[in-house]
Each structure stands twice: as C-alpha cells, then as structure tokens.
Amino acid sequence: MALAVLSMIRNYTENEWISDDFLLQPIWDYLRLEMGNFCRSPLFPVVISVTFYFVLNLPFMIMDIMGESWPRIYKYKIQQKPVKLGKMKEAIVCSLQNQVLFVLPAAIYQWLFRPPISLSVQAPSVAEFVLGLLGNMLIFDFQYYWWHRLHHNYRFLYKYVHKLHHEHNSPCSWTTQYVTGCELVAVGIFANLNPLILNQHFLTTHVAILMNIYVSVEAHTGYDFPWSMASVSPFNLWGGAPTHDMHHQKPLTNFQPFFTYLDNIFGTSSDAAHCESRDPLKKQKIILATSN
C-alpha cells in the first residue's frame, strides 16, 4: 500500500507545475536562509509548538464563549449543551502550568546542552514529505492506542496519570492539555521521537509535530464541522471529534486519537447512538460513522 501511494505521488509530481522544486524548495530556502538561526536553535521546536497550540485554541474558545448565541456554529456542537466556563478556565490554567513546570525546563535543558543543528540545502521530495507525515501519524496513533488503553485498564495508571483528563466529559479544545505532567511528557516523547526514528527531514519533522497538535485539538473541540477531518475522510477511517467526544462519555471505548481501524479490529469502538444532539440528522451521521 505504501509503495503504491509513493509511486502515485512520484508520478503526480513529475508535472512541472507541482514538482518538488516548485512546491517545497522555495519554502525550505526561505526558512533556511531567512530564519536559519532560529530554526537551528534548540528552542525552535518548543516555541513553535507552544505558540501554535495556544493560537489554535483561540477561535474555538470564542465559539465556546458565544455558545447558543452563535447558532450558525453552535448547531455543529456534538453535545448540545454550553461549555462550562469554569471548566474551560481550569483547562487553560492546567495548560499554562504544564508549560511552566515541564515544557520550559525541557526547553532550557536543550538550550544549554544541545548544540545547534545543521540544516540541509535540499528540501524533502513531495513523496518523502507526504509519506513522512502519514508515517508519523500512523506510528503515533498505534503507540497512543495501546498507551491509552493500558491507562484505562489498570486502576493505578488511570487514577494517577490519566483520570484528570476525564474530569471533562464534555470536552472543549483546551481539554487537549488538561492532563497530568506524566501524560504530557509521554505524549511529547512519542511525538518528538518518531521523526527521529524515521530519520526525517527537518521540515517534515516539524510539520508533523504541528499536525499532531492540530488533530489533537480538533478531536477535543466538541464540534463536528462539515469541513473537519472526520467529515471529509473516506470510509470513516478518521475518528476525530465525534469518536473522541464519545470516549469522554464512554471512557472504555474509542482509544485511538486519530484513526478508527484499531478500535474496530480490537472491539473497542463505541456505538455513538448515545451521543447527545438536538439534530437527528447529525446523530444519524455519527451512528453510521461508528457502525460501518
């Protein structure tokens, strides 16, 4: 399958208008030549990840604050009840505490002890870039499924590592990092170690990290938009917000963070019929997505 996709991408990129040089090389040249010192800095991954996470949450926070007063958006909310602002505040404070207590020390350590890295002149090919992103997501998804399932099946791990995250049975985007330090570190190791294992280009590595953040936040938003990844993905391969929202209601189901195939294979997918909604068409859509 991977070889077939690779062959298709290579054939597609033979077109001069979408060649590797046309698509990725100018982007990489700009980053390398205009922002090279920042990119080589040990602080670069931390700065872009933290900034991206907090900026990404802002529009969803506005949606949650507006709530029912913004019906064009609120109609896409999976659980048709307003987000409790007190819970949102808890999640924001927890996110900030985690950055200060765990991310900042890691950043300082890298700044002091990790030398600046070298940047290659050549950008990754389109095939390498696309398959690199896909590979990262598949590996992370597999790792987190088993890590997640383990922490729900063993009382000690659930109580002291993962239970905090499930204080929100109706999640909002800030719930993404409403986690203990142990969980934040574990997920961070998965996300940052996999590109090294795959020996990926600098550009692929950091886009993959940002993509992990995006899909994790999207899964916790509590909204099922027509343009979300779950809505546009074929064959119901992507779980997204509908399945993860159900996980917060039925915690022993839907352990995969991104895809759905492992939950389907190992019988841990849920029937989303109990997912609260005032829109019967939306409820029917969720049921069909989890039953096929």
Outline the structure in words.
By secondary structure, this protein is an all-alpha fold. It has one domain. It is 65% helix and 0% strand. The protein has helices at 2-12, 20-23, 25-34, 36-40, 44-66, 71-74, 85-113, 126-153, 155-162, 181-197, 202-220, 229-232, 240-249, 261-265, 280-291. The radius of gyration is 20 Å and the shape is globular.
| Overall morphology | globular
Task: Report the uncertain regions.
Answer: 1-6, 12-17, 272-292
| Helix proportion | 55-70%
Could you say how many structural domains there are in total? Answer: 1
- Class per helix and strand makeup: mainly alpha
What's the story with the biggest beta sheet?
none
What's the total count of β strands? 0
Provide key terms for this protein.
292 residues, mainly alpha, disordered C terminus, 15 helices, disordered N terminus
Topology at a glance:
Blueprint: H1 2-12, H2 20-23, H3 25-34, H4 36-40, H5 44-66, H6 71-74, H7 85-113, H8 126-153, H9 155-162, H10 181-197, H11 202-220, H12 229-232, H13 240-249, H14 261-265, H15 280-291
